From TrEMBL:
CDD domains: EAL (cd01948), GGDEF (cd01949), PAS (cd00130). PANTHER family: BIOFILM ARCHITECTURE MAINTENANCE PROTEIN MBAA, DIGUANYLATE CYCLASE DGCP. Residues 169-223 form the PAS domain. Residues 36-150 form the Response regulatory domain. Residues 482-735 form the EAL domain. This is Response regulator receiver modulated diguanylate cyclase/phosphodiesterase with PAS/PAC sensor(S). The modification 4-aspartylphosphate is found at residue 85. InterPro entries: Biofilm_reg_signaling (IPR052155), CheY-like_superfamily (IPR011006), EAL_dom (IPR001633), EAL_sf (IPR035919), GGDEF_dom (IPR000160), Nucleotide_cyclase (IPR029787), PAS (IPR000014), PAS-like_dom_sf (IPR035965).
Length: 735
């Protein structure tokens, strides 16, 4: 007999439609689907009657006429309810129930049977039947039994769903707590652990099991226990929202390792019934602590490193300018409180720039590191050595008995630096210039002491370096004059106070003017006429030499135009060139543009350079001078023999003229004078076919000696003093 399946739309909720996941955190909501009902009976009229009774109830009905069909349907799909006749022609209802139990079929079973015996009913109930109806039964009895069976099933499904949600929620929050990067814990009112997450094992090496029931102090570093006791007990009985404390905790991961945690604490209250099964325990209210401990060890170390680097020089590991000023300020306050003295030393390494430029910055850094170690070894325990930058160091010497204490330290500094430094496989020698200011005589504030020790240091450099000098008020006056001079010099260009003067160069054989050296003068509104030596060194120190030389190029070109217009043979003009200006690299272009603009022949220009240019940056100097020679400009070595003379320079550099310095000329006192240096320079010039010019010739004896020795071109007071442009023009017109 063929089974019939009726699907009724809009049916009631059925638990068989609910699918519970074995993992995850979100519980699905019960589905609103019609109940699946299987009708099993071998009597067609009974099946039809059952269908009629249930068809308007919103169920999906499936009919089976024998046991085999029932088992087949049960194997194909789940059912919510099975209405089962015990007496079937092929398989008994008990066997079908045994099959359902073996397959763990989740369905309520209502057994119907005409058997009056008690054994059949007992057998059905033992096999899990929801109810047992004896035939004949009333329609109302069947409907009520069906409704009750499905209602029970619905309630059971809802209970399972709620239990699953609770279990899933607990699992989720347990996962979140154990996966937290922080240690999460709770303490009872006596400070014992009642809960701690697994993070404590990973961070500190303590298991959860060995901490539960233990006092929090087992984890606290001994030095922090008192602070921990205060903070953990601070909110006891007081419902403060939260407290924060930074504590160091013990760790088993490395012997002696201490890790720093910031703890956020919250006081919690609960009834004893939360942890006790005794009904009468609800009367007692307990207090505990909920805490979150975050590991900030790496952050603390990073902060400490950043703080250290902010106050220390990375290269030498000495205090930097910021920390030095702080230490000096504290030393001044202490000295003022104790009515004591202190010394501030400003130390500048001599010849460091030469080492840095010739051996490179890497070697220069190593020199600074070794110098710092030596200087620090000379100090007392309470002294401070700092590096301000470059090759400048400072030393604060508090609790000074007298000035002699500062002298002893300064001499130790100088002595330790005199010993050679072994760098790059060679011995390097340096010295230091040290300026000393004493509190309170040389200044009562930190700024005054720093300024005055700096002034004393520069005074020592001007006196020849490699020594120490105490500050004196006269130095401040000289320094103020320098500052005033620098300011006035900046205004001199704007006000037109600079002038060009010219000292003629004479051919002693013909007494004709063959050239002139350009000399700058400053018509100072208060101090009168100043020579180049009075202000050009300041210009080189403060970067003013560049605009001043630019002005000079324009001035001499305009003056040369007037010279050429005066008639006669063209006169060669010599101009002194600062090493800074040559290093800029654009001197060639500036000179070329000026000569082109004013239509002046380049052969009328001779550039005078010193020997220091040759050794400062020889390759650059050679390139610049070669370009000038290609333009037609000649090159002269000024003050030859007074610097780091080397005959190789005369071969490597494009030199046309050698100028004999006036310091050698002054030694010629009579016709029988022995001046081997002068004779050697003249001999070198002749051997290399170079022009010769003697400077500073003031007597006829000097003139005769030089001319007899082979030098014919001279300049000096014997012929002419430096002349203004107006007088130079008048002299050229007469000639």
């Amino acid at each position: 007999m063929r089974a019939e399946v009726d699907v009724i739309a809009g049916g009631e909720w059925t638990p068989s439609a609910v699918s519970f996941a074995s993992h995850g955190w979100s519980a699905p909501a019960p589905a609103q689907l019609p109940a699946q009902v299987l009708l099993v009976d071998d009597e067609p009229r009974m099946l039809s009657s059952l269908g009629e009774l249930l068809k308007d109830r919103g169920f999906v009905l499936t009919s089976a006429a024998n046991g085999g069909e029932a088992i087949r349907y049960l194997g194909q799909q789940p059912f919510d309810l099975v209405i089962l006749d015990l007496r079937l022609p092929d398989i008994s209802g008990h066997d079908i129930m045994d099959f359902m139990n073996s397959q763990q079929a989740d369905a309520n079973i209502i057994v119907t049977s005409g058997d009056r015996g008690i054994d059949a009913a007992i057998g059905a109930l033992k096999r899990g039947a929801y109810d047992y109806l004896r035939k004949p039964y009333s329609p109302e009895e069947l409907r009520k039994t069906v409704d009750n069976a499905l209602k029970q099933r619905r309630l059971q499904a809802e209970n399972r769903h709620i239990a699953w949600q609770l279990e899933s929620s607990e699992r989720k929050y347990r996962y979140l707590v154990d996966s937290s990067p922080d240690i999460i814990y709770t303490l009872d009112h006596e400070g014992r652990f009642t809960f701690v997450n697994d993070r404590v094992q990973q961070l500190l090496g303590f298991s959860r099991e060995e901490l539960i029931g233990e006092h929090y102090s087992v984890l606290i570093q001994e030095d922090d226990v008192l602070r921990a006791n205060y903070v953990f007990n601070e909110g006891r009985g007081d419902y403060r929202l939260s407290r924060n404390v930074e504590l160091r905790l013990k760790s088993r991961h490395a012997k002696g390792e201490v890790r720093t945690f910031t703890h956020e604490l919250m006081t919690i209250s609960f009834n004893a019934s939360d942890t006790s099964q005794e009904p009468d325990s609800t009367q007692q209210e307990l207090f505990g602590t909920y805490g979150v401990a975050r590991d900030i060890t790496d952050r603390k170390r990073a902060d400490e490193l950043i703080t250290y680097q902010a106050y220390h020089d990375i290269l030498t590991d000495l205090p930097n300018r910021v920390l030095f000023k702080d230490r000096l300020g504290l030393a001044v306050l202490q000295a003022k409180r104790n009515d004591a003295s202190l010394a501030l030393m400003f130390i500048d390494l001599d010849r460091f720039k030469l080492v840095n430029d010739t051996l490179g910055h890497v070697i220069g850094d190593k020199l600074l590191q070794q110098a710092a170690i030596r200087l620090k070894a000379c100090l007392r325990s309470g002294d401070t050595l700092a590096r301000l930058g470059g090759d400048e160091f400072t030393a604060v010497l508090p609790e000074l008995s007298d000035r002699q204490d500062a002298v002893l330290i300064a001499e130790k500094f100088l002595e330790c630096l005199r010993q050679p430094f072994q760098l790059a496989g060679q011995s390097v020698h340096i010295s230091a210039s040290i300026g000393i200011a004493i509190y309170p005589g040389d200044g009562e504030s930190t700024d005054e002491l720093i300024r005055n020790s700096d002034i004393a240091m520069y005074h020592m450099k001007a006196e020849g370096k490699n020594g120490h000098s105490f500050f004196d008020r006269s130095m401040l006056d000289a320094s103020c004059q320098k500052i005033e001079l620098e300011h006035s010099l900046r205004l001199a260009l704007e006000r037109g106070e600079l002038e060009m003067y010219y000292q003629p160069q004479v051919d002693v054989r013909t007494q004709k003017i063959v050239g002139a050296e350009a000399l700058m003068r400053w018509n100072h509104p208060e101090r009168g006429f100043l020579g180049a030596g009075d202000f050009l060194p300041f210009a080189e120190e403060n970067g003013l030499i560049i605009p001043i030389t630019d002005w000079m190029l324009e001035a001499i070109c305009l003056d040369l135009l007037d010279w050429n217009a005066a008639g006669g043979e063209p006169v060669r003009l010599s101009l002194n060139l600062s090493p800074q200006y040559l290093d800029r690299g654009d001197f060639f272009d500036k000179l070329k543009n000026a000569l082109t603009l004013h239509h002046i022949n380049a052969s009328q220009i001779e550039v005078e350079v010193t020997e220091n240019i040759c050794i400062h940056n020889p390759q650059t100097a050679i390139e610049q001078l070669n370009k000038l020679c290609q333009l037609g400009v000649s090159v002269a070595i000024d003050d030859f023999g007074t610097g780091y003379s080397s005959l190789s320079y005369l071969h490597r550099f494009p030199i046309h003229t050698i100028k004999i310095d006036r310091s050698f000329v002054m030694k010629i006192q009579n016709d029988n004078s022995q001046c081997p240096v002068v004779l050697a320079i003249i001999s070198i010039a002749k051997g290399l076919s170079l022009n010769l010019v003697a400077e500073g010739v003031e007597t006829q004896v000097q003139e005769r000696y030089l001319e007899r020795s082979g030098c014919n071109t001279m300049q000096g007071y014997l012929y002419h003093k430096p002349l203004s442009q107006k007088k130079m023009l008048a002299l050229l017109r007469v000639a």
